[in-house]
């Protein structure tokens, strides 16, 4: 790979994944609404199913980007310093905000470790551990990268098969570990075990393998895009029928659906890179996607209170909440960056522009 090349399509894909997360957290509630019409139930269920692979897409992107950025040059101290300042501190900040708003400040340590401050923060409890382990994963991945093709394929097949059984017996594994470690576990201790990155490693490994030969991967995916979309539509149809309880759950098909969702949306993202306006829009959302993820449940709650007028049309209400939150959260995070010392909230360097406008002075105390 040419390390000086910007992976624009991954920025767009990250933005799409964020929008899917918001979609999942809105549509997931509406399709369970009592007395919902069959039409609305079908629409909400389809939208919810389309959004379910969002986390696996995020994890896959992380695998690609981390190996892409650090495979040739890696400074452990700088790596951890960046993760602490741009990810861990904002996560702690938002967790404390949610805990303060809920009025429950007990069990703070375990809540932070398990992502228990709000339901969506479980992902942070998982991904932060994965980021902590990354130097070890990077070391092992570089060993695999330098091996021959046969070894690479054999290891990948072994990891896929292992993941299948790990996923299949996740509940039993968690139950065993919880009973082994804790005599009387709290709900947060149980959650800490249940959200282990071990249960998401397949998508991270896929991302790393993609990064091994990124340009070749991109070329092949675009060459066979028609077949990928056919596979995606088939697997989406299966997932939808399973969601509405028409057919039974099949683990292989569901795991394949998550992978094909990534591939299909990757192709869409590549196409969007050629459309300047669309590309800029998604790049904006992508830049603030992390802090928007942390904040979007709060933003969603505020919009629900504001939009009382649309309750009579539940479909309009759900769609407006989804799209409104997807846009409002990144814009809010952008506005917050104009307030000094707000990196602890957004993970992005704050601008002194607002302070300078108010004081009429430069950062050195001189008049502008």
TL;DR?
The protein has 368 residues and is mostly helical. Helix content is 76%, strand content 0%.
Rg, Cα atoms, Å = 22 Å
**How many domains?**
1
Unreliable segments of 5+ consecutive residues: 361-368
What is the end-to-end distance? Answer: 45 Å
Total count of helical runs of at least 4 residues: 18
Spell out the helices and strands N to C: HHHHHHHHHHHHHHHHHH
The geometry reads as globular
Please describe the structure with a list of short key phrases separated by commas or semicolons.
368 residues, mainly alpha, 18 helices, 76% helix, disordered C terminus
Describe this structure in words.
By secondary structure, the protein is mainly α. The chain has one domain (about 10-295). The protein is built from 18 helices and no strands. The protein has helices spanning about 10-30, 40-50, 55-70, 75-100, 110-115, 120-145, 150-170, 170-180, 185-195, 200-210, 215-225, 225-245, 250-270, 275-285, 290-305, 315-335, 345, 355-360. Helix 1 packs antiparallel against helix 2 (about 40-50), helix 3 (about 55-70) crosses helix 10 and helix 5 packs parallel to helix 9 (about 185-195). The longest helix has 27 residues, at about 75-100. The termini are far apart.
């Amino acid at each position: 790979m040419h390390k000086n090349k910007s992976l624009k399509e991954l920025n767009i894909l990250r933005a799409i994944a964020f929008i899917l997360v918001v979609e999942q957290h809105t549509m997931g509630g509406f399709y369970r609404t009592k007395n919902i019409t069959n039409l609305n139930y079908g629409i909400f269920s389809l939208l919810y199913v389309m959004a379910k692979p969002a986390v696996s897409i995020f994890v896959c992107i992380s695998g690609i980007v981390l190996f892409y950025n650090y495979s040739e040059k890696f400074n452990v101290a700088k790596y951890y310093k960046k993760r602490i300042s741009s990810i861990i501190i904002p996560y702690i900040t938002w967790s404390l905000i949610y805990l303060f708003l809920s009025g429950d400040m007990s069990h703070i340590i375990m809540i932070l470790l398990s992502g228990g401050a709000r339901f969506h923060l479980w992902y942070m409890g998982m991904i932060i551990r994965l980021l902590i382990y990354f130097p070890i994963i990077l070391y092992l991945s570089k060993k695999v990268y330098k091996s021959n093709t046969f070894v690479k394929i054999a290891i990948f097949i072994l990891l896929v098969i292992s993941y299948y059984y790990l996923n299949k017996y996740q509940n039993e594994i968690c139950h065993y570990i919880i009973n082994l470690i804790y005599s009387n576990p709290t709900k947060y201790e149980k959650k800490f075990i249940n959200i282990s990155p071990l249960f998401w490693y397949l998508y991270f490994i896929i991302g790393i393998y993609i990064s091994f030969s990124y340009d070749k991967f991109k070329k092949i995916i675009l060459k066979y895009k028609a077949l990928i979309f056919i596979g995606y539509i088939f697997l989406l149809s299966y997932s939808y029928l399973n969601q509405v309880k028409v057919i039974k759950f099949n683990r292989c098909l569901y795991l394949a659906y998550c992978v094909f969702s990534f591939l299909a949306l990757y192709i869409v993202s590549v196409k969007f890179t050629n459309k300047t306006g669309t590309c800029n829009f998604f790049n904006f959302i992508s830049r603030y996607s992390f802090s928007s993820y942390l904040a979007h449940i709060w933003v969603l709650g505020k919009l629900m209170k504001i939009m009382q007028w649309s309750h009579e049309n539940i479909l309009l209400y759900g769609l407006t909440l989804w799209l409104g939150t997807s846009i409002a959260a990144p814009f809010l995070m952008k506005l917050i960056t104009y307030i000094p010392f707000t990196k602890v909230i957004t993970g992005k360097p704050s601008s002194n522009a607002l302070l300078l406008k108010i004081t009429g002075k430069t950062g050195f105390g001189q008049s502008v």
